[in-house]
Records
---
Amino acid sequence: MDALRARIRAEGRNLGNGILKVDSIINHQLDPTLMLQIGESLAVYFRHLAVDRILTAEISGIVPAMMTGLALDVPVVYARKTKPITMAGPVFLETAPSHTKGIDVNLLVSAEFLPPDQNVLIIDDFLASGRTLQALARMVRSAESRVIGVGVVIEKSFEGGRELMRQAGYDIPIHALATISSMAAGQIIFADED
Amino acid sequence: MDALRARIRAEGRNLGNGILKVDSIINHQLDPTLMLQIGESLAVYFRHLAVDRILTAEISGIVPAMMTGLALDVPVVYARKTKPITMAGPVFLETAPSHTKGIDVNLLVSAEFLPPDQNVLIIDDFLASGRTLQALARMVRSAESRVIGVGVVIEKSFEGGRELMRQAGYDIPIHALATISSMAAGQIIFADED
């Protein structure tokens, strides 16, 4: 997605240790028009798969998921990391290590919002190690639904998350709108795309 | 906003102590089409005020703010409650008591995303005590910008937040898409509207 790559080139900063600062466009400040385009681009890729529902994780997955849900006209549910006072009834709970926080985080979804026998598309902002995405996928399986694809805004392919998902048995389409193949030596190198 | 009130009537639950469970429509599961309508309704109300930028707070303010930003074609920034590893440089920091968590929470915005001399519209999911909204408004003043309005999805008018904002000197338009005037005795009573 050219508009996204152009923004990352202009505004992204390599903070070292594989940490990409893109908070001017994705996870602190948001450009609504770019986000609409992101949702539409992800929707185009997955539309043929008869998506019933989108699952993501708070916080920065919410807006890309929302915009994809708008384009596909399906409900979106986001996993909470802490239990809100309004969360009642049974929940699906999975744990994943946080890349940026250095600790394990809980992911919780009320069972009522993850019904069985659905085609679930998982959306997130980043595909890095793939651990969060795998935790979301385990949740969908626990709910007796099917993960039919994974869509992300930015993939850091040098972290190998795509292969780890394949090795974990998720033989599903995985689509990234921008793929960064290296952040060595302070650079931000994009994979050849499209 | 009739569609919103209908959904709250059908799905909202009064959990006692003024806690309204609307997580099937606003803060866990999201209906993208309803959210688009919410953004458009808030945009219609504030469009004449020459909004430069929208400020909200994570987590459940993000989607209504995003959808309003989409309709107004302005950037959105959301206050973080914890400092992400990607947050560098000076920040504006305010503290507000959380209604649902029973503790004070920090609200942090990178100074780079809250520039001076802007017309800032504050959007959130709820107006209850108004403490979070006041903290966001203080942040805008610290940034030497102007709060030109406050838009919320649901106002719980019985908590008096609107009056507290007036008393704190915020003589600005405040607009709610659904106003709940009482949650006494397990009920959910809407104010007469429109």
---
Amino acid sequence: MKSIKIFCPGSVANISCGFDILGLCLDNVGDEMIVTQTKKKGIELEICGDYIVTKDINKNAASVSALALLKSFKHIDFGFHISVNKKIKPGSGIGSSAASSAGSVFAINELLKRPFTNKELIPFAAEGEYACTNSYHADNITAVLLGGITLVRSNKEFDVVKLKTPLQLFVTIIHPQVEIKTSDSRILVQRKIEISKLTEQASNLGAFISALYNEDYDMISRCIKDIVVEPYRSEIIPEFNNLKKIALESGSIGFGISGSGPSMFSLSKGPKIANDVKINLEKHLEKKNIKYKSYVSMVNDTGIKII
Amino acid sequence: MKSIKIFCPGSVANISCGFDILGLCLDNVGDEMIVTQTKKKGIELEICGDYIVTKDINKNAASVSALALLKSFKHIDFGFHISVNKKIKPGSGIGSSAASSAGSVFAINELLKRPFTNKELIPFAAEGEYACTNSYHADNITAVLLGGITLVRSNKEFDVVKLKTPLQLFVTIIHPQVEIKTSDSRILVQRKIEISKLTEQASNLGAFISALYNEDYDMISRCIKDIVVEPYRSEIIPEFNNLKKIALESGSIGFGISGSGPSMFSLSKGPKIANDVKINLEKHLEKKNIKYKSYVSMVNDTGIKII
């Protein structure tokens, strides 16, 4: 039977200034997935790897999005077996569910010889995200399906755009091994804000996007701010303020919470600084006896890929 | 004595999705100003033209910004005579005070052989705006001083950037002859908003900026939305909803309030549609017996210029 093996990358949502809007695709952090066409109709699911996720076909992100995709075809007299090799910890803030949601539909679409573009797969992948978080948000799945740095204009219409990625932009991820559920973390931000804060947050987002096109790293640095969500969410992330200070002192051009945390991201110009940041963040967490995972990654401009 | 004559263009602030952030410089709508170096120290002010504005040196936008600029020099043993030929109606919503605030400092800087870049003139021009509106906002003056479409990241640090202007972008301005004071109009927007509205408004701004760089007119069209301010401000602008409908039916890719109104702007792809929009808006206001002024303008990429 036809079979495909893919790399399903992790991703950073929000990037501080773009809450529920921006996403960035990582390069060397992600799950693997093998999808095989089967004679039997429907979806079969197998989970292996470092982390346990639900095997319930109607709850697992990979199978839910796959089922949504299959529903869009009138007649299909075969099925698919999805084997998820989970390497991204669920609840880590680097898009574990998005990797699964997007991965399965990408793989099935490939096996069917691409009836859909990657962009057209977003609504199906969003069903997988919904199964995990009870809300339609396309920031992570868009980054994973299109690659690079992406913007979601509308989560209702899935109107998305891939932005330009400055070539020297590198990401450091530091993931303290504590779990925060995305759904819990979202409760923290159900607040009203002043119009002046809207203007401040939106102007940082606008200037950030312009800076991506102009490859203006200084401007990027001034824009990586979150005055709306970070003040609340950072309270439940261990050592957030100290880690931010260390990152910026190590040459980071921007530091914040990845998605709903607890992972944090740092952006740097070039891999050397990104690595310095990683080493200094690690040292601090070791001093504090907090277990962590950490990565340095370039921005993955391809997104999900066949391996 | 040395003398200079300049064109001080009108401008559109906000562009719906960028409240207090975006500005767009107009091409064939504006004041004229003659600035002459004088032996006498200080600033002299003369007002002529179609509209009356204050001649009080400490209140007029042109003289206040000029005085702020002169203060930045340690020794200056001469002065300037500023003659403002006012063609933009104050309170029209197309940057009448910004044209004056920016014009005088631009002209004096030219006469002094440019000790400052145009960007460096923004803090001085902002003093003129402050004198008229009691707030520091740089959206109009930035558009006028840099030309094109501009973004203000911070009104505190005057951190601004000139964006890319799609070549086929044309503007229609329709100005019903009713007066709304900017300061009154700002009161209407002192409200708190839901975080979800922040996301919606900011994502439109972000996508708009990306669309400028990609020259994606369809995306521009989907982004010219204002869910925060327009619902309130439009209530005090005569025929707003009907005019918006007419503009969009005439081929406009976006219609909204210019600055704090009552002028309205429409964006179109190409001059023909911009002119069709103008004609159809005029017809409607004539039917309703509302006096108006109207213009079609390309985006002025130069900003203020010597004439």
---
Amino acid sequence: MSKHEGATPANGSPGGEQRLSRASVQRFSLYLRHLERWNDEGLQVVSSSQLGDALGINDAQVRKDLAYLGNIGQPGIGYHLPDLVAALRRCLGIDRPWPAVLVGVGNLARALLRYRGFQRQGFTFVALIDADPKKIGQVVDGLTVQSPDKLPEVLAKTKAELAVIAVPGDAAQGVADLLVSAGVRGILNFAPTVLRVPPAVSLVSVDLAVQLEQLAFLVHLGQDEP
Amino acid sequence: MSKHEGATPANGSPGGEQRLSRASVQRFSLYLRHLERWNDEGLQVVSSSQLGDALGINDAQVRKDLAYLGNIGQPGIGYHLPDLVAALRRCLGIDRPWPAVLVGVGNLARALLRYRGFQRQGFTFVALIDADPKKIGQVVDGLTVQSPDKLPEVLAKTKAELAVIAVPGDAAQGVADLLVSAGVRGILNFAPTVLRVPPAVSLVSVDLAVQLEQLAFLVHLGQDEP
């Protein structure tokens, strides 16, 4: 599970009329993941039921979600796949690149740097930050690790609006405060702690232990069944 | 965002009367995270509004969720913290250890092995599996990397019911099939792909790019606001 905090999509929806729920936005990401694969495979047209079947979501929900994107489907035919992909990317705000800084250069950071899914969606790490003097100056995946006190100039130079926090839990709030004062607009937090940021800064937290707990719960339930 | 698939909590709830929604289970994990911290800090009693405030959830929802655990709160006083923590752990099925195997020994695996949040919740990696002949036999964090064809005997010996998949997307389904045939009961998947497993096996997928997309969407919305 992840926890989404900070700016809520109360208004400012791309269409301007309707509020998108968090759950819809998450489904949009999943729709996009499937549609891009089908697009790569050369599929031209897709129906709401195909998409629903692939994701285990009912048709009606899929149609309702996609209606948010405007009149892009044709009744009885379906959706033109490249148009649908473009509309979803525009709606999610990923029809442009998102440079991001990565704070905390440990194993998780190294995994994230090589995670192909990010690049594909336009997320590029443009700077690495670490407080450890032994790491500062090292080159990792073509980027030189810089000290946290360089953050304001790094953000100014790279135009990065997003930051990913991959430091231990006890260091995360300090890093978040630095990022906020340096002008970052969104933070993806992997540290197993609850961060406080001002409302103007968006925060998404990924607590990996919560994910494993969800799994344990599902297996535990299964065991209770006769 | 994560996607939860496989066994649904249709019945078999610990109390047996009521169905817990996925959203409730996710909130339970977040409640637990906060309560354990307060417990460590020596707090003895907590109210639903304290918990709600800390998580940005309204009181009524917190009380409704916690009522599922039975009569453990006292009106006007609150919840005895150690009892509440124990009840949540029991409900989530993490009042006992969960040995797990980790498949794919790259940077993500190394990060997961050192992720303190897992150990704390009773999740222990008891075996490392990788198909790369260069990695087989290496010792990482005290565990020897073993070949995938050893999976059945590894599961039998370690009694591991859970597996974490940290291999590239194109290898993930093959690994999932191996794990299923070796008798694993739950899979946490970090590979950026959609896996198919039989209904008897629980699956939780963590798509890191989806998380970053959610963040981009929130920041994007903020930009649309006047």
---
Amino acid sequence: MVSHDDAEAVITDSAAGRDYLDLAFEHRLHEVIGQGRVRSDAFAAAYGQLWESLERMATGGKRIRPRLLIGAYEALGGTDARAVVDAACAMELLHIALVIHDDVIDKDLMRRGELNISGTFALEATLRGAHRRDASAWGEASSLLAGDLMLTLAHSLLARMDVPEARRRAALDVFDDAVFESAAGEHHDVWLSLHLEPATLQDVLAMVDQKTAAYSFRAPLLLAAVLAGASATMIEELTAIAREIGVIYQLRDDLLGVFGQESETGKSTLSDLREGKETLLIAYARSDPAWAEVDPLFGDSDLSVEDAARLRTVIEASGAHVFVESLIADRCEHVYALVRRAELPEALRQQLIDVTMTCGSRR
Amino acid sequence: MVSHDDAEAVITDSAAGRDYLDLAFEHRLHEVIGQGRVRSDAFAAAYGQLWESLERMATGGKRIRPRLLIGAYEALGGTDARAVVDAACAMELLHIALVIHDDVIDKDLMRRGELNISGTFALEATLRGAHRRDASAWGEASSLLAGDLMLTLAHSLLARMDVPEARRRAALDVFDDAVFESAAGEHHDVWLSLHLEPATLQDVLAMVDQKTAAYSFRAPLLLAAVLAGASATMIEELTAIAREIGVIYQLRDDLLGVFGQESETGKSTLSDLREGKETLLIAYARSDPAWAEVDPLFGDSDLSVEDAARLRTVIEASGAHVFVESLIADRCEHVYALVRRAELPEALRQQLIDVTMTCGSRR
């Protein structure tokens, strides 16, 4: 077991520090969820299963947010391993909470090709003889509560950080802002998918910024900055850069959702179309006269593979695909320029450029 | 506007202190939700409406938890008005969050005779032309996010309390425990309502204790105690007393849910029966041979008024009603004995007896 004290000792050795912190993060995340699982033994069996599902869920993941946070913190000269690891765990736990609640909102039973919490619990209840509607309600309730538990655990870690009071409060502000903005973005996303009013390109970009960029890029970078005691100027620069990276990430995500390879993304290229997900890609395609013809297909929850292909053809022919690709390329250039101009440590510059390239070009 | 400094000045005057703190609580609760509403102006219009709904929701309520907390804190000699008001707000915000998420789990559109957040948002979308399924998903998403926001606000207030570190951590522990236990209880409640395994009286009592007593009685009393610096013995005694009061409260609630006057409780006496809510009342009635005959009616979401009356007759004839009433009376006596034996300030003794009587006899 890696104790916090070990982590504190090692962060001063910068060569080994990064890998070490990544490991310490994995250990700590497993530890805090494991504590919940152990405690759940005193409760009903199903509650224990819920915590086991959360342990499994926390094992995978790309760790985008914790890595960004840990890397930035080290580059900015931070030396408190315990604080940065707990902040990284809080960001990952928030991510898990939002993913779980997003699945409840979308009524999804699968994530990345596997049953999610709703799906797992609903299936088990069905096998034990529950009616379909009851089983589905049980799955949803399990997910909803699981999200609440992960959100609470995230807050709990941040509230207990043993750092100077001003930094702790600044970190709490960053985290609360992230929840506030991502809830605003998620709410607007659901609203746009009702199609009760036309969505402008700007609406969609603002929604994407709030829903994803805020907690995935701004919050980890700003948490790293306030915990490392970065200057106000640096925090301002990082805010602008994070905003741009988040939009690039989401634009790529939207393209992958319609044109990606399911074998690589682990996500069906039907679900966004069936859900009627309003993206910049779709907002652009809508302006093409040919859209009218396929409009009824968009958001049809029973959309066939053939009709999805028709939709894709119209989107492609509208120039939307090329438009979004060029927008991604432009934004990447813009980030590189911002990063070059900003007064940042060289290691952080390099990290931001790497993250931008990964977000812009991932498949 | 009542500032925190005013509140701090007044708590030393114990005659006026209690009323003053109740007012300061109302002011502060309105203030923190109002800050969210103001901030939401920078986001989509519907997000502002969501915050307005939360403001309205926070205006009513019986204030059971904040009053218990404030009263106990004063009786225990606490003098930090700012801390106790923020702790009281955190408890009320947690209550609001749990109520909202409970409605999502039960798919309720009404609460206390009015449209809840899901109902309000779904109705508005329907009037604007949304399909029924979309409108309902929009309502649910709004509630789910609203609950997350209130849970976050609760954590946020506690994390920022300006009290000695040991007390702050003890308060955070109490709050986290309350979330952990109420999630366990809610999860078990949904599980029992699937009726996949028989529920013993003990199962139901444990569920009720976790779901309601933990956050409604234990958490407010323990928060008051740790913030006022009460002894470990006193905290132990309060824990036992709170557990008993919580069960009394819930037993009364279950009786009112089936036999209450809708005009007084504001709650339909059909919903618990339609939902198939497992309570001690039902667990007892099930042991009567006559139950078999009405069993299919229990949990029937289309249960008629006539069939509900048949169910009530069987429950009554089984002796369950009398059994639960006598259990409530026994438990009340037990609490009075515990309170008399405990080493507590006289004012707190009186408060606990009053709360117990109110919980035991309310209509």
